[in-house]
């Protein structure tokens, strides 16, 4: 009987050891599986919606291109672009679509401030971070604004015109951008402040050309017909300044006036090259902020950092004195 009890004890101990061994083996197997999953996990993806007000301006094409180039550095990012074609209703619908897609971040350059404020506020309050580029909205329902100081840019243009280009005074035509854009309003206000340095400089005509070269040709033709003496045309961007140049040339009045723009793209068809070629007398570099927007997106989405509310980008005055040097600095090629 004692031998039998001893035998049962041995069997029970043996079964317990086998059971413990099996549990340890299963646990080890589970741990290995989790480790493999951890090691094999793909990088988290983030969907970014970019709502562009229009791609009819070379500067805005450059903005989109810079966003694409910057995003290539981050495999986590997929950027989807929408072009509103200068239509407020279309841009509202584009942003509504991004909200429905539950994008992880929205980048937007509003066509006009007031009509876009509500839908951008809707995205922001839905928990979607919003980065505004170049143009603002009414209020502060966004995560970050990135852009240059348009008041300063306009003022520096006005001061250069007052001090250098029209130091003895003269008549100016102003070609504005799309009505209701924050950048255009600020640039116009700064320009008018800048020319106050010289009370002999007079604005004799001003019209909107919606930032577009072709429309600026028509607008300038109309203003030239009603103004016999024009010494300078100030356009709020370089394509409109180029349009004014073409209109003046067609009217046979090219030699009597100078042309000033803003944007300063370092491309063969940009404002810096226009100065080198003698069509413009002044432009200002206006950075797109595209690369900076992607860097901010990375800080916020991937690194979990809080973004500062406003980033002010730098600018630079471009004249015939430094145009070639600046053009080469940005990689432009010149035939010399």
What's the short story on this structure?
The protein has 336 residues and is α/β, with parallel strands linked by helices. 48% of the residues lie in helices and 18% in strands. The protein is elongated, with a radius of gyration of 30 Å.
Your description of this structure?
- The protein is α/β, with parallel strands linked by helices.
- It is 48% helix and 18% strand.
- The strands form three sheets. Strands 2-1-3-4-5-11 form a six-stranded parallel β-sheet, sandwiched between helices. A four-stranded parallel β-sheet has the order 7-6-8-9, sandwiched between helices.
- Helix 6 links the parallel strand 6 (170-176) and strand 7 (201-208).
The helix fraction, in percent, is 40-55%
**SSE series:** HEHEHEHEEHEHEHEHEHEHEEH
Distance between the termini: 113 Å
Write down the Rg: 30 Å
Strand order of the largest sheet: 2-1-3-4-5-11
Mean pLDDT over the full residue set: 90
Q: Mind summarizing the main beta sheet?
A: 6 strands, parallel
Q: How would you classify the helix and strand content by structural class? A: alpha/beta
In what range is the share of β-strand residues? 15-25%
What is the number of helices? 11
Low-confidence parts? 1-40
Silhouette = elongated
- Per DSSP E runs of 2 or more residues, the count of β-strands stands at 12
Question: Descriptors for this entry?
Answer:
336 residues, alpha/beta, four-stranded parallel sheet, 12 strands, 48% helix, 18% strand, disordered N terminus
Strands, helices and their partners?
Layout lengths: L1 H39 L5 E7 L5 H14 L5 E7 L4 H14 L3 E5 L3 H13 L4 E4 L10 E5 L1 H16 L4 E7 L5 H13 L6 E8 L4 H13 L6 E4 L2 H13 L7 E3 L10 H6 L6 E3 L4 H13 L7 E4 L2 E3 L4 H7 L7
Parallel strand pairs: 1-2, 1-3, 3-4, 4-5, 5-11, 6-7, 6-8, 8-9
Antiparallel strand pairs: 10-12
Helix pairs in contact: 2-10, 3-4, 5-6, 7-8
């Amino acid at each position: 009987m004692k031998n039998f009890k001893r035998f049962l004890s041995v069997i029970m101990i043996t079964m317990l050891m086998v059971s413990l061994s099996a549990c340890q083996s299963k646990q080890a197997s589970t741990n290995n599986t989790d480790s493999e999953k951890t090691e094999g996990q793909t990088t988290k993806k983030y969907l970014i919606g970019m709502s562009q007000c229009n791609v009819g301006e070379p500067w805005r094409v450059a903005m989109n291109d810079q966003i694409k180039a910057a995003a290539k550095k981050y495999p986590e990012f997929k950027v989807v672009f929408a072009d509103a074609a200068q239509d407020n209703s279309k841009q509202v619908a584009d942003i509504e679509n991004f909200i429905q897609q539950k994008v992880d971040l929205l980048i937007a350059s509003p066509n006009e401030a007031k009509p876009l404020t509500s839908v951008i506020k809707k995205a922001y309050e839905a928990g979607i971070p919003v980065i505004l580029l170049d143009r603002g909205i009414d209020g502060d329902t966004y995560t970050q604004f990135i852009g240059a100081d348009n008041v300063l840019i306009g003022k520096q243009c006005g001061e250069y015109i007052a001090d250098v280009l029209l130091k003895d005074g003269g008549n100016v035509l102003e070609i504005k951008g799309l009505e209701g854009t924050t950048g255009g309003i600020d640039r116009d206000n700064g320009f008018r402040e800048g020319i106050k340095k010289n009370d002999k400089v007079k604005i004799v005509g001003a019209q909107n050309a919606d930032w577009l070269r072709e429309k600026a040709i028509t607008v300038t033709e109309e203003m030239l017909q009603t103004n016999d003496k024009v010494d300078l045309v100030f356009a709020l961007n370089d394509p409109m300044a180029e349009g004014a140049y073409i209109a003046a040339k067609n009217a046979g009045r090219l030699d009597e006036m100078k042309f000033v723009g803003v944007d300063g793209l370092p491309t063969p068809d940009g404002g810096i090259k226009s100065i080198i070629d003698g069509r413009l007398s002044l432009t200002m570099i206006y950075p797109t902020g595209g690369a900076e927007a992607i860097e901010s997106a990375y800080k916020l989405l991937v690194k979990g950092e809080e973004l500062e509310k406003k980033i002010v980008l730098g600018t630079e005055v471009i004249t015939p004195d430094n145009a070639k040097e600046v053009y080469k600095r940005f990689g432009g090629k010149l035939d010399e």
